[in-house]
What we know:
Blueprint (H helix, E strand, L loop, with lengths): L8 H22 L3 E4 L2 E4 H24 L4 H20 L3 H23 L4 H6 L7 H28 L2 H26 L7 H5 L1
Antiparallel strand pairs: 1-2
Helix pairs in contact: 1-2, 2-3, 3-4, 4-6, 6-7
Amino acid sequence: MAAKKDINPIIKQVLELGPTVAFFLIYLRLKEKTFEIAGAEYSGFIVATLVFIPILLAAMGVLWALTGKLSRMQIFTAFMVIFFGGLTAWFNDERFFKMKTTLVYGVFAVLLGIGLMRGRSYLAYVLGDVLPMRDEGWMILTRRLCGAFTGLAVANELVWRNMSTDLWVKIETFGFPILLMGFIMLQFGLLQAHMIDPDQDQG
């Protein structure tokens, strides 16, 4: 097993967010074009999706080489991108890649929900080492995030089924991540009372 290593947080953010931004920029460049590949015509969206997959894998490879680890969430998301990106190209149907976002958020909601039904917080299992918080706080945060992921899954279905591809790409790239990050930051403020102070505990 590779040893875990710390890297510059800016580099880490670029490797984690860069592929999504690259997809957005490539889509903007190709969205009005069509490409003929092996006798079939593909839209700029589908070609951008195909280009996005190796960019994502390359970024994850560099991140793993630099840090010695990848989170379960990163691995799962990469698998979903590859799987649904492949279906998108195979069937020449952009709906598969759009549905990927619904399933990613939906799976996260289901996993958190299963933990809640068992009286456990799977978030604490994943983030407990970096975010010390009492069990009660983890359960509250898990319930709220489960609801947030469910809401994002439903929102994605509404967006891609009723709005243009161009608008969906913008919301997928910027809207959903900003909403989720803002929601999480707000929760940490509300849950400050449940945080554990390591120095206080040691005293």
